[in-house]
């Protein structure tokens, strides 16, 4: 399959999914939506701070949680995945918001849920729009042996993980795992082994380049 055709197809599919998920949010939750810009991570190599032209919307309620991310400044043609990081016991963290190592080193202690939220291929202008829904209860693909039981009280992080240029031969794995396309060395050592369980390793030094945090106090 021609890579450019595949990329265009994936971009159209991602846009339709984002629109469909966002339009299906419960109306009661829409009124309480929280919107923030994405921020660059230290690993991105960019100046820390908000990323121009970006927004992340979080909706949470008894139903669970839903998010919509509009990002920019990314590398055209790269695969990115967005992850639900839901910390249901943030009191174990030292600061106002939990750090990745505090969350990933002991997900059971922080009562965290970590799973794929959405994925896609970055457009030619460096932008991408994605959305995802996480229902309350058992979570498929969760890094930890936990359940999503406290959507309204939890702390949420939505990191964007860059897997590098789209490889059509492993495209589905790149779009559906944390590891695919990445060197093992580029996966932080504080991540659980479940983060390495799926996806073919590759030659790209993957990085989490952007993130937004929604502390539970909001």
Structure description:
The protein is of the alpha+beta class and 218 residues long. The protein contains four helices and twelve strands; from the N terminus they run H-H-E-E-E-E-E-E-H-E-E-E-E-H-E-E. The strands form two sheets. Strands 2, 3, 6, 7, 9, 10, 11 and 12 form an eight-stranded antiparallel sheet that branches. The longest helix is centred in the first third of the chain and has 21 residues, at 3-23. Residues 1-19 and 27-31 have low confidence and may be disordered.
Silhouette: globular
Residue windows where pLDDT falls under 50 for at least 5 positions: 1-19, 27-31
Distance between the termini: 46 Å
Helix segment count? 4
What fraction of residues sit in β-strands?
25-35%
Q: What's the pLDDT, averaged over the residues?
A: 88
Helix content: 10-25%
Query: How would a crystallographer describe the biggest sheet?
Result: 8 strands, antiparallel
- How many runs of DSSP E, i.e. beta strands? 12
Estimated radius of gyration: 16 Å
Order of helices and strands: HHEEEEEEHEEEEHEE
Structural class: alpha+beta
